[in-house]
Amino acid sequence: MDPETAHHQVTGGLRKFNRIWGAKPLLKSIYTVDDPRLKKEVFGLTFKNPVGLAAGFDKNAEYIEDMAGLGFGFIEIGTVTPRPQPGNDKPRMFRLVPDEGLINRMGFNNQGADVAAGRLKKLKERKDIIIGGNIGKNKTTPNEEAVNDYIYCFNALFDYVDYFVVNVSSPNTPGLRDLQEKEPLKKILNTLQDLNHTKYTQKPILLKIAPDLTESQLDDIVEIVTGTGIAGVIATNTTISREGLKSDPSLVSEAGGVSGKPLTDRSTEVIRYLATRSNGAFPIIGVGGIHSAADAIGKLNAGASLVQLYTGFIYEGPALVSRICKGILKEM
């Protein structure tokens, strides 16, 4: 089955299953690890465990309660843009089975910030699940006006999410990664921080970065994060590198970002570099190629405070969350 079709079939099936009487507590009993030792206090928020669902899985805030029932400590929606957009032409997701990875060039397909906000407003079982809002710009918005798109999404989602993620690192929106350069990035982050300070309460703002940045660019990231006073970094997004891939060359040559196991080591290197270079000045959420408890623990040991799953969750199944939580408890 086409990967994107499979995604919608499985998530839709999960939602239908959860409407059956007794289904939610059954899944919770199977997949959730409840242990107070897993709680983490990070950028002023209390996470019931450090394992989250990365952005991209639930772009439109449709499956928060369903995914929370599989044991996640937090859910990140998006990437959300101000206006709805269809994303890139299909097919736009490809399985690299021998590499246990994916290539995607989705292109921020989503129903828009207002639709996501409307769904979040109606959530019944918010309880102890932390929700992040990953925000980006529309494809047709010129980079010079990108800051306005981030402002729009920030205002639309502000009342309904616990933290924000500024996504300037997806390789699938033309020119987006240019916003990772020092001056445009400082403009976006400073503008959002100024807006944040006008609100009734402040929400943590994080920056999601690419794994393909050089050391000097990572040094700039450390300077920008500390200079703007944002809450932290998510490391990393997908990579444009194709180094070492074993899958069919016709698939490997598809445009888009690679996720999954090919990213494991590089994302951990970026986490370690940022944590060391900044002397632990800000929290890092580690994401990229987490397919086992050992992978997650490796990122935590490298300096991450929390971790997120996406491709590993697809390949390993929902039990991966509990395996990671149990693995963390064994290390204590």
Automatic annotation (TrEMBL):
Superkingdom as given in the UniProt entry: Bacteria
GO BP annotation list: 'de novo' pyrimidine nucleobase biosynthetic process; 'de novo' UMP biosynthetic process
Keyword Membrane among record annotations: yes
Localization (cell): Cell membrane; Membrane
Pathway: Pyrimidine metabolism; UMP biosynthesis via de novo pathway; orotate from (S)-dihydroorotate (quinone route): step 1/1
Boundaries of every Dihydroorotate dehydrogenase catalytic domain copy: 38-332
Cofactor note: Binds 1 FMN per subunit.
Cofactor: FMN
Active-site residue numbers: S170 (nucleophile)
A GO CC term assigned to this protein in UniProt: cytoplasm
UniProt EC number: 1.3.5.2
Keywords in alphabetical order: Cell membrane, Flavoprotein, FMN, Membrane, Oxidoreductase, Pyrimidine biosynthesis
Membrane topology reported for the UniProt record: Peripheral membrane protein
Classification via InterPro entries: Aldolase_TIM, DHO_dehydrogenase, Dihydroorotate_DH_1_2, Dihydroorotate_DH_2, Dihydroorotate_DH_cat, Dihydroorotate_DH_CS
Pfam families in UniProt: DHO_dh
Primary role: Catalyzes the conversion of dihydroorotate to orotate with quinone as electron acceptor.
Subunit structure: Monomer.
PANTHER family: DIHYDROOROTATE DEHYDROGENASE (QUINONE), MITOCHONDRIAL, DIHYDROOROTATE DEHYDROGENASE (QUINONE), MITOCHONDRIAL-RELATED
Family per record: Belongs to the dihydroorotate dehydrogenase family. Type 2 subfamily.
Name of the protein in its database record: Dihydroorotate dehydrogenase (quinone)
Species whose genome carries this gene: Sphingobacterium allocomposti
